[in-house]
Amino acid sequence: MATEKKASDFRYNTGETAVPWAAVGENYNAQDLMAFIKFLMQGSGAEYDRALQAVGAEVDKLAALSSPPGKLSLGPKVEELEALCDEYLGVKDSLFIANATAGFEIAYKYANLQAGDEVIVPAITFIATIAYPLSIGAKVVFADLDKRTINMDPADVARKITSKTKMIVPVHIGGYPVDMAPIMELAHKHGILVLEDAAHAFGASYRGKKIGTIADFTAFSFHEVKNNTAFGEGGILTTTVDAMRPHMKRARFLGLDFSRTIEHWLYDVTPVPGKDRPFVPGNSSTTEIAALGLMQQIKRYESILEKRRAAAAYLTERLSANPAIIPQDLGNDQIKPTFHLYQLQIDPDLAGGDAQTLKAKLTEKGVTNIPHFGPLYHFSIMKDLGYDQAAIAADCPVCEEVFTKRFTHLPIYGLSREQLDYMADSILESVAEMQEGK
Hints:
Layout: H1 30-40, H2 46-65, H3 76-89, E1 95-97, H4 100-110, E2 118-122, H5 131-136, E3 139-143, H6 154-160, E4 165-168, H7 180-190, E5 193-197, E6 205-206, E7 209-210, E8 217-221, E9 235-239, H8 248-252, E10 256-257, E11 268-269, H9 288-299, H10 301-319, E12 325-326, E13 335-336, E14 342-346, H11 348-351, H12 355-364, H13 380-384, H14 389-395, H15 397-406, E15 407-410, H16 417-435
């Protein structure tokens, strides 16, 4: 008797049949698994080789007793991960996607963004935030920054809203939440959608609400450099738009609709409803392996956040000894960052020099530091697309000042106490040298 199939397992008959058609073309074997183990657990030397050989022998025994998975993508592990994210974030119908950039694209398409429409973004972010608007000829409008947080300044957003503004895209730089209340108020007043770029902010909260439950859409990243990863790449998209939630899965995978069929075929392909009209989604499918990897890290994520918070708190305490140094804001009961990055600022007047001098001194001392992102309008792509870079710079004076004179980012995770001590000592020594004119 053939086994019952789920509606989503549409491709092939994977049940018990006289002539089966496997869903997975070529299965992975014990040798392939060992290559995977060697990649994840790298090492060298005779002792490592002996241990690896012993593991290989056990894997061969396991292979003789096991069978391969029936699906490698969009299967039960993806569903299990999405349920875990729903619980963790306090949302419904979260969507596991290839990366945060794919989530941005879905949100932009839902907004029915067109050439000539305007999108307001912070002056400092990653290019992925604006890649889709640029690709279709929409206009990117840069909001200036809040000097303390390096996030977008809601007051400048208000000044830059026009009748063409379709979306506002706040970015939680370093995992420190943007001041969302005035942005959401502006959006509601003008009928504008809000998309949160929360690539750094998985687990952050603002005024008692988890990031992911506030804006119309929120996209998180699980790229290899983030607080937790999906074996190198992945993203989660959430929405508070009730009309969109039932269609999220189709928005991930080309609009395939397994609840409907056409004559002589297994499914239908239907457009996804957008804000004003339907849209055609792309393909941002994800794998079972990526979902499995991310699940393991989410299960221990609170301990990851606590280690980051503790390291940030230690650095902030140490660096507060010199009033010329403006250390990372640790948040409060209402603002809970993820400490993806440690933001270090100085007051150039009190420090006797600017951030460029400090960065060079820290580099000489072996302390890795770099502003995680630069002002987007300085990139060649903006000039080549007709943006007036000088005019934008003049319109974003805070961005220009903080980037050139005030801030850099420091590593915060995976450091020993000795390394944290050395980093704090080096910063204090470097600023003291600047103040002494050395």
